[in-house]
Design brief:
Blueprint: E1 19-23, H1 28-33, H2 44-50, E2 71-75, H3 89-106, E3 110-114, H4 116-123, E4 131-137, E5 140-145, H5 157-171
Parallel strand pairs: 1-2, 1-3, 3-5
Antiparallel strand pairs: 4-5
């Protein structure tokens, strides 16, 4: 796994997506496989399905199927690490700047940042909470979702799926 440190995981994006999901940064398992949210125990894929965004549970290796549902994935910081706390404040700020440029170029309906701490650091918004944000990037609205990492134990799959479902409904995605 250490060989995957600092590797990049390609974005799964297209112009005009309904929702662009944005992780904090790739973990080592994601970097090793080239698939987002690839670590066993990460709840992103099950929660995406439970919330109705996908008609079946996708595996990380099937990430490109998201595009057929008007969904995509990127990260705040591209560099892979074992833990998000290895990232510097400067990396978050620069990642936020680059993310805003990407969103302005791709024009998704919603940017969904998975992790309130990452959103706060990247966009200098210390009071942000999970849910829709006041800030927009051009015409793109922003929603902060709970971090699906297994380390975020106070959010259960059911409570995370409910928050993802709220975003799905706001985005007008079929369910």
């Amino acid at each position: 796994m250490e060989a995957a440190r600092d590797r990049l995981v390609p974005d799964v994006v297209a112009d005009g997506l309904r929702v662009l999901f944005c992780g904090i940064n790739p973990g080592l398992m994601s970097a090793a496989t080239g698939h987002h949210f690839a670590r066993p125990g990460n709840r992103f894929w099950p929660v995406l399905h439970l919330s109705g965004f996908t008609p079946r549970l996708l595996k990380p290796a099937e990430q490109h199927e998201l595009l057929s549902y008007g969904l995509g994935i990127t990260n705040v910081v591209a560099r892979a690490t074992a833990r998000a706390d290895e990232l510097s404040a400067e990396e978050y700020v620069e990642g936020g700047r680059l993310l805003a440029e990407k969103v302005a170029r791709l024009r998704p309906g919603w940017l969904a940042v998975v992790g309130v701490t990452a959103y706060r650091a990247a966009f200098a918004d210390r009071t942000a909470k999970v849910g829709p944000q006041e800030r927009t990037i051009g015409g793109t609205r922003i929603w902060v979702l709970p971090n699906p990492s297994g380390l975020n134990a106070h959010w259960t799959p059911a409570t995370m799926a409910e928050e993802f479902r709220r975003l799905r409904e706001a985005a007008g995605a079929p369910g």
